[in-house]
Structures are given as structure tokens and as C-alpha cells.
Design brief:
Largest sheet: 4 strands, antiparallel
Number of helices: 2
Mean pLDDT: 94
Radius of gyration: 21 Å
Order of helices and strands: EEEEHEEEEEEEEEEEEEEEEEEEEEHEEE
Strand content: 35-45%
Distance between the termini: 34 Å
Structural class: mainly beta
Helix content: under 10%
Strand order of the largest sheet: 1-2-3-4
Shape: globular
Low-confidence stretches: none
Length: about 450
Amino acid sequence: MNGILRLNDNNIERNAALGSHDPSMMWDSVTGKYYSYSTDVYMPSWGLQDKIGIPVRSSDDLVHFKYEGTVLSEHAISEGRDNGEFAPTFNFWAPYVEHVGDEYRMYYSATRCFGSSESRIWLAVAKHPLGPFENRGVGADTWGTDDTYPNAIDAHVVWDGERSFLVYGSFFGGIYIKELDAATGLALDGNAKNLGQCISRRRPNPPIDGPEGASAIYVPESGYFYLFQSYGWLGDTYDIRVGRSKAVTGPYVDRDGRSLVEESMGEKLAGSYRFPAAAPNASDDNKEWTWAGFRGPGHGVPFYDPNIDAYFFVHHVRDGAQIYRDYDEREDRYSYRMHYMIVRRMFFVDGWPVFSPEPYTGEVSGVPAEERKGSWEFVRFDNLQNELKEAVRLSEEEADALVAAGIVHPCWDFENSRPTKAVTGFDASGLAYWGKYVYG
């Protein structure tokens, strides 16, 4: 079994979180394991020999993961790649898997090419979480449409009682939702070309590009459906935002009641950040590596874990070290190429979700007593500024106010490799913040 996330360790056999992009998460009561599926990534130097077919990682405890290989059958791969007269699809994107009845259903995306809005969301089924998964059919199809229509990628499924809905799309026409046949998992009306209805779309001339990577969950304790999505450039300034609705089909709104359709990007919950680090959980594989924070958290999936009666959010994030970035002259921006899976606890403040500042490592004990002095460090996520946020120390009065307003919880200090306590919440102006106590 692999250990928890380590930075600068580029071997997937030792570091299973490595290379996970657009991750989803499922708890399987049959096998008693967690499974995380992600976009195809081919990096032989990481030990990834599988070329295409949806990689999966398994875990017994949601902390230690094992890379299991790919799960689509050869026939499913061949069928999914077939683009007729056009070049075959290079890889498959953003899978989501759920257990329904006696089968496992995987929704995954095949696009004409990177950056295209012509795509299909396939449904493949299996009798085991590790497959092999065989295609049942196409659930959403935007082949032959232009950029004003939604893109059939980034599938996620949300249930409203006995009814099942597909949430999908990316910037272009926005995020859409359409009802599925609960018995088959395909489009309710049998028409994959039926797009459904828009539930989120960027406004004209948006300050930040998006949305994409959407997912939704119903939380009975609050009575709301929550729609998560990402804005920004996935190589650096990606973020995570949320809106909520009393109905699965919307309207989804922000804290001020503004619609996510051309009015609001939603409440920003996470962005690029850096807490100071004395001894981060990293190997010395590359001697030039130095801790530089995390870039572009995004494309995440919320899930409920019945084992510990808690909510979580899994997403990818990029190592901010300069040795892992490339400069794009045409776009005049950097892209950070080393990406990992992170699992975070998700809490609720006044009916809105917030994330823990630190990766989940199970139950944490040994947090120093209050008598051992230190200070709080805070990151605050501005709504429109998506550059890296450095943690800062506030006055004692300001810190006390944020601690009192948020959810304080014990956690493992990833950056300093020791137990500590953290806080997450919204400040008086409505901005999400993360705080961590650093002992002196």
C-alpha cells in the first residue's frame, strides 16, 4: 500500500497520488474500498505504462492509495476512440463512477481533440470497480456543434430521490444538466443529442475563464443541492467555486442570490496558495526542488463517506516548484505540470461548504496543548484575483475573529510534518479563508 501524498517523488508505485487529474471518488460497500478514477495521463518516467483506458487508484482508508492500472476493456477503448473520418481520440477524460444495483457505471469523455467542443460522454459498465468496463452507449453528444453549445465532457451524476441527472459541460456553452433513465444510466428520452438545460455559464467578457469541471451533491442536513465548478487556467490559476439550489435543476445561486448563469461565478472556496514550510512531505529525488506552494486546485468531486459520517472533496492540484513549470510564449503564462490528487474534509458554515486547509490523513491526535504558544497563519481567497496567495499572520484581534467564525479542527500539518489545528470559514466580507496554527 502506498503512503500519503509526497511531493517531488515521481514514481507512482511509491506515490499513488502522482499524476491524478480530474479525480473522482467512490466508496464501494461491496469490496469495502475507496476507488478514485481520473483522466488518462501517460508519463513513462512516472512508471505509468498503460497508454489509455482510465486509471484507477484504490484505498482502504482514504489516506493510503494504490495505483491499480486502467479499467476500460480493449473493445471499449477502440469504440470510444473512433471518430470516424477524423483522427482517433488521443485519451479519455474526467471519469465518474457510481454503483447502481448490481453494476458499476462509468461516465467518461472522448473529445475530437484538445480544445474542441465536439465531444461524447460514454457510459461503460462493469461487475467490479476494477473492470473491465464495457461501453453501453453515449449519454451526451455534442459532436457537430459549435462553441456556443455545451461541451460533452466532465460528467458527474447527482440523484434527486429515485431520479438520476447528468451534470456536464465546460466553458463554451456552460454547464448543463439532463435527466437520465435510472434503470440504464443513459438519456431518459433515449436521445444523447438532447442537451438538457443550462445551470451555469460565464457572463459576457468574463474576468476569469470558465466554468468547467462541474459536480453536484445533495446534502440532506441543509436541504440544498451544491454545484461545484472551476474557473481559471488549469495550469496555474485554476480554482474551485460553488453555488446552491433547492432544486436539482436550479437555479443555482451565490450567497447574494445571483444566478450562476451569466451573473456570478459562485463562491470561491480554493485557489493557488502557499503556507510556509519547515519540512514538507517531500522526497529528495530532484535536488533542485524547493517548496513553492500548490497551484491550481480544481476539477473536484464532493462525496459523502458513510464510514465516518463525513463529507469530503477530492481534486487535483499542481506542485508550484519552478522546476516543474513551463512558459507558454503565445499565451504569456506559466503552466505547472506536476499534478496530484488531494482529499480534503468538507464542512458547512451557515449552509455553505468550506474545505480544510490540509490534505486528509485520517484521525489526528497529539495536537499540542494550548499552553504551547504559536500563531495563526491565514490564506484568504479573493473572488477575482487568482494568483498565488501567501499565508500571512494577522493581528491577534483579527485572528480571533476568524477562528471564532469558522470550523476549527485537528489536522496533520502537511507543510511542517506535525499535528496541528486548522480553521476554515467565511470572513465578514464573504471571502473564504483557511487558517493553520503554527507552534513556536
